[in-house]
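Thread amino acids onto this structure.
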């Protein structure tokens, strides 16, 4: 009852959006597709929700084949696309009623499933969707995707453009939906959200770079990682870029994350190099890799 993707490829003219992608999502799993804009996430969602046909490969959702049994899939999945999922000129209640009617159900019939989310926007039920805040739009879109009690839920970048508090609440909500037995495939460009999934696939340029639990992916980082800071950040990036012992150097918050191509490298070597290049207020410390670091390493 999960999702199975086997050797799926899809091109748009010259752009190969998905290149021979394969993975499985187990029933009841919260699975994340993590990757930057243009990685191919939306294309994959559209194939799995039967809105687009792949050039090659096979996929099933909740046990149904995306081509032969597309009607069953449409009845059993909920899809919250990244954009344009709500009717801006309809009110909150009208949007929800509309989606319920399409699926031959009513708000009352499945109210239990959406109650927790919907009570937060119910005070605004007569407001047009176009006039809601980002966080409220997101809650309405999720309610609409859930109103027919789907077995599998597809959420394409549900937290993009949403404030940090609403993002946190949203993920807590996903965890509760998962406990009700719903399989969830969610995409996000935010690496911190990746840590909240059971398993993740890192995706870039239509390729899957890695699939595993967030913990294993973090721990698979192959090098000693240093966080580096100095008074002049721009010069620091340039000097690290041209250092012969640099394997990688990229901005990470207020620091530069650095790895060396020399296995015996230590922090003192780097401090010495930076001092000899006129840097001041130098900080070099070993740091634990994050999922983003693994992603950067794999996509090199
Ligand atoms: N209809 C289309 N025609 C031509 N190229 C397209 C079309 N849709 C997507 N692409 C291209 O396919 C690639 C994958 O796009 P896709 O939208 O699937 O990525 P994404 O990871 O969802 O990113 P985003 O968050 O920007 O939507 C990109 O290079 C994109 O420009």
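Threaded sequence (300 positions):
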């Amino acid at each position: 009852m999960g999702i199975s993707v086997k050797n799926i490829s899809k091109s748009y003219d010259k752009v190969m959006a998905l290149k021979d992608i394969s993975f499985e999502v187990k029933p009841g799993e919260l699975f994340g597709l993590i990757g930057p804009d243009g990685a191919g996430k939306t294309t994959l969602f559209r194939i799995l929700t039967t809105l687009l046909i792949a050039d090659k490969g096979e996929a099933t959702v909740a046990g149904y084949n995306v081509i032969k049994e597309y009607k069953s899939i449409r009845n059993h999945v909920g899809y919250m696309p990244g954009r344009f999922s709500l009717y801006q000129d309809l009110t909150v209640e009208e949007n929800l009623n509309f989606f319920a009617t399409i699926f031959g159900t009513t708000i009352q019939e499945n109210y239990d499933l959406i109650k927790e989310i919907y009570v937060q926007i119910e005070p605004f039920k007569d407001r047009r969707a176009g006039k809601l805040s980002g966080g409220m739009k997101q809650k309405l879109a999720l309610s609409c995707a859930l109103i027919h009690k789907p077995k599998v839920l597809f959420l394409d970048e549900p937290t993009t453009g949403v404030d940090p508090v609403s993002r946190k609440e949203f993920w807590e909500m996903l965890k509760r939906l998962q406990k009700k037995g719903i399989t969830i495939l969610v995409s996000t460009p935010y690496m911190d959200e990746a840590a909240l999934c059971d398993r993740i696939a890192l995706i870039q340029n239509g390729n899957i770079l890695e699939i595993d639990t967030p913990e294993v992916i973090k721990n698979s980082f192959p090098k000693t990682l240093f966080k580096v800071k100095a008074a002049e950040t721009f010069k620091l990036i340039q000097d690290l870029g041209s250092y012969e012992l640099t394997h990688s150097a990229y901005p990470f918050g207020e620091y530069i994350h650095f790895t060396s191509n020399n296995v015996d490298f230590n922090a003192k070597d780097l401090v010495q190099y930076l001092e000899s290049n006129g840097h001041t207020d130098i900080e070099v410390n070993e740091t634990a890799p994050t999922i983003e670091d693994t992603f950067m390493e794999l996509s090199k």
